[in-house]
Design a protein that fits this description.
single chain, AB_hydrolase_fold, FSH-like_dom, 281 residues, 6-stranded parallel β-sheet, globular, hydrolase, LovG, 14% strand, Serine hydrolase domain-containing protein
Amino acid sequence: MKFLCLHGAYGNITAARVQLGPMADLVEADGTASFKFIQGRVPVTPPPGFESYFGPGPHFRFLRDRGEAEASAMEGIRVFPEADTPEDALRALMPAGDARIGYVGAREDCLAQLYEELDADPEICGIVGYSEGASAAATLIYDEQERMRNEGYVPRIKAAVFFMGWPALTGESLPALSDEIDDLLEVHSLHVVGANDPYKDGALALYNLFDDNMAIFFDSAGGHTIPRHGKMLQELGQAVKDLVVTVQDDASIDLPQPKIARRLDSAVDIPTLRGLKLSEA
């Protein structure tokens, strides 16, 4: 199974490989899955004081919003509101009609890029997203599910791994919330959430969007970071492998067959092959 990997806000492919590399190496080691990394198309500059936090540039995002730096929606997320439920927190963070916090036109541009990636690589059937990349990934799944119901479209994404993040964006550039939508998302998913993540409500609201019978909750016992060491990394790698097996065992899912390059066996007698060619001539 091949996964498309999306970095977080102010990230790039290099940073994503550093963050996700240990997990990807574990899962790829036995051939369970492979990972393709891409970066967003929205060039951005980190907010003042965070220039070194996000590592070497250039920096990108998948979702363009209404401002840059302090005027960006990312600044609002840094001061996540408190509320009784994750959904209430998201409504407070991105209220309908708010001119500063929220996304405009981001959904369409992001989806265009992700569908291009799917069209270019028919083997991709899974997606991994970290932080804002998780929202972008969820937005693709949300759109695929809507197209399935309205157009008979067959969704490409069969499995998703979310590291923190927040919900998908609707066509109105607002977060899709479980207590406002008619149908939960029916995709096998693994949700890695840090118990100490200051933006945990966003990740919980994302988790709540998915069918309970198909969503797995993984507590990383950390903050807004991806496990990269020790026992937690081993458990994460196994959780991703288990997700892949679950998808493969689901009889209702048709997975693309990977292309296998034809190679000569190292034990083949080359002179014998030469003789065969001569005899055929």
